[in-house]
Design goal:
It contains twelve helices and twelve strands. By secondary structure, it is an alpha+beta fold. Strands 1, 2, 3, 4, 5, 6, 7, 8, 9 and 10 form a ten-stranded mixed sheet that branches. The protein has a two-stranded antiparallel ribbon with strand order 11-12. The chain starts with a helix and ends with a helix.
Length: about 400
């Protein structure tokens, strides 16, 4: 479904108004915060943060208020933003994303790529969960980690979780995003080998969805492939039904001899569909995981392995290879998010305020990605004219910088 610029803008503004109606839910002190009329209301403060670019806080406020006499001081702005919890922007992100439901599919499938990216933030020694002292003459720094779920067909983020670097856990973040994912169409999660895990695959299987996850080659000692009996060939496509259990009875030990059928999961290994400990007399059925292992050539002397649960008859090995190659779309999006939308430029030193800006940037990334069909391109020799008339008649895959220009043109 396509939308006009006014519709997209209206959807975002309405989402902000809906958050504003329950602003007390997202205020640090619900009884007092935003109880008086000020230049920077709850709604205006959120809008100001959404529109921030890479300039100084003073310049951004002047730009937001058009250099009028009502422009608040930086001190007043900091005081007002301190009253808003980061969850306000996370909720706005979900509300806006869910309201603009674009259904671009790849051969009937919704493709969701998952990945993570570190974000260096201003140094704060008191924030021990993100602080690094630096080594070999390097200056101290703090890191946050962004876990994101990205729609490769619509080119928008559908979910995100921000963690502090020392306590980050990409697997937990991925499982959380999978569990709260809803889709009207068949969905494929595509991930790099950092997400290789039986638990991750099981969560996707329980949702009735599919996965394509790169795994370590069988030459590695600690990957899924190293524990299986795989063909002694350069390229292969092999389907398995694995029965996972934590029990080590004499009967189960005999079953473990068939490495492609039964697998032991240690209690120290996370697997949410088996109890960590149980009495010998307890009856606990093994968990059945349907998995398909593929190994294919990517260069003359290089091979990759992926695990998937896609049907081999419907999705042959070449199609799986193409699906995994499409995962690079999320890496490109991180580059645009950081260097064009401005995720590297923050207007605070506190992690809580920076998380506000992270979700604000993701919202504006989605906003600008949703307007590619809303401009007219007419080529006259080497010149390109952009007009706002008859916007629904053309589709223009424009440069992302142009999208940022259009966002500013809207004066959100």
């Amino acid at each position: 479904m396509s939308y006009t610029i006014p519709e997209i803008k209206s959807t975002l503004l309405n989402s902000i108004k809906n958050i504003n109606k329950v602003s007390w839910l997202f205020s640090t002190n619900p009884e007092k915060d935003f109880s008086r009329n000020r230049k920077l209301s709850f709604e205006k403060t959120m809008t100001s943060i959404l529109c921030m670019g890479g300039g100084s806080l003073t310049n951004e406020l002047m730009d937001c208020f058009s250099c009028s006499s009502d422009t608040p001081s930086t001190s007043a702005f900091v005081q007002q933003r301190a009253k808003i919890l980061p969850e306000a922007f996370e909720t706005l992100f979900r509300m806006f994303t869910d309201s603009i439901a674009a259904n671009s599919l790849y051969k009937g499938y919704r493709l969701l790529a998952v990945d993570g990216s570190d974000l260096q933030i201003p140094t704060d020694k008191n924030d021990t969960d993100s602080y690094y002292p630096g080594t070999n003459g390097q200056k101290p720094y703090n890191l946050l980690h962004l876990n994101a779920l990205y729609d490769l067909c619509v080119h928008t983020y559908v979910d995100a979780i921000v963690q502090k670097s020392h306590v980050k856990n990409e697997h937990k973040a991925f499982v959380k995003m999978v569990d709260r994912c809803t889709a009207e169409h068949p969905t494929i999660f595509i991930a790099d080998r950092g997400y290789e895990s039986y638990n991750n695959m099981a969560h996707i299987q329980e949702k009735g969805m599919n996965f394509v996850i790169r795994i370590k080659d069988f030459t590695s000692r600690n990957g899924i492939a190293s524990g299986l009996e795989l063909p002694d060939e350069d390229e292969f496509d092999m389907s398995l039904n694995l029965f996972l259990t934590r029990r080590q009875t004499n009967k189960s030990k005999e079953l473990f001899k068939n490495r492609n059928s039964h697998k032991f999961i240690a209690s120290a290994v996370t697997f949410d569909y088996l109890p960590k400990h149980c009495k010998k007399s307890a009856i606990v059925s093994p968990y059945e995981l349907r998995i398909r292992i593929l190994r294919f050539k990517i260069t003359e002397n290089t091979y990759e392995m992926v695990a998937t649960n896609l049907n081999a008859e419907q999705i042959p090995d070449e199609a799986v290879k193409k699906l995994y190659a499409m995962r690079c779309g999320i890496e490109t999006s991180f580059r645009d998010l950081k260097y064009i939308v401005g995720l590297l430029h923050f207007h605070s030193k506190k992690a809580e305020y920076i998380i506000q800006e992270i979700f604000a940037k993701i919202i504006m990334y989605n906003f600008t990605e949703l307007i590619p069909s809303l401009v007219v391109v007419r080529k006259k020799t080497k010149n390109i004219a952009i007009k706002q008339t008859f916007l629904q008649q053309y589709i223009f895959a424009e440069n992302f910088s142009l999208k940022i220009y259009l966002r500013r043109m809207l004066k959100l």
